[in-house]
Design a protein that fits this description.
heterodimer, A: mainly beta, 5-stranded mixed β-sheet, 4-stranded antiparallel β-sheet, 9 strands, globular, B: mainly beta, 7-stranded mixed β-sheet
Chain lengths: 113, 112
Amino acid sequence: DAKTTQPPSMDCAEGRAANLPCNHSTISGNEYVYWYRQIHSQGPQYIIHGLKNNETNEMASLIITEDRKSSTLILPHATLRDTAVYYCIVRVASGGSNYKLTFGKGTLLTVNP
Amino acid sequence: DAGVTQSPTHLIKTRGQQVTLRCSPKSGHDTVSWYQQALGQGPQFIFQYYEEEERQRGNFPDRFSGHQFPNYSSELNVNALLLGDSALYLCASSRRPVYEQYFGPGTRLTVT
């Protein structure tokens, strides 16, 4: 799986958009970008994933650059409950034999009142 | 629709003892993965079970073993516990062939 680089921490004001960057310059053509988050002492929570088109769901939007070497997770209106560690992971979506998720250290997003 | 459940929530054991952790996958899921998360670190993959067989294993010693039952639930066993085994143990389920995984709340194991 391709390696990812994320800033160790970010701050955001409550009600504002939180934009979390991720670099994945060695991503392969069949690898997707996945985002998970982990609120303190809970299990990681799946947020969103995408291949090359921008994706949006009820939680967030995912913007992937045209060359697919980087992406941004956007939380449009951050709340205090969005304070968590956010992990960016790149991997194939199905098939093959490598099933594990490889977590880095992620980005600690702190939403301030 | 029940999500991934794990038991127990917390556990305290002594060095050298053995422990069994349990996981029930999300409804409709057939694959269970186990992860270990030390304090301040991201989760580390231990192994994954599908069709009652271990399909992939991370860099963990043989003291870590597992099992999957016909109803897709799973157990993680750790023998000869070490202080370094103290961690949050996470179970994640998915449905082949898709890799999107859903995590349970975890079991906090403390080894004294």
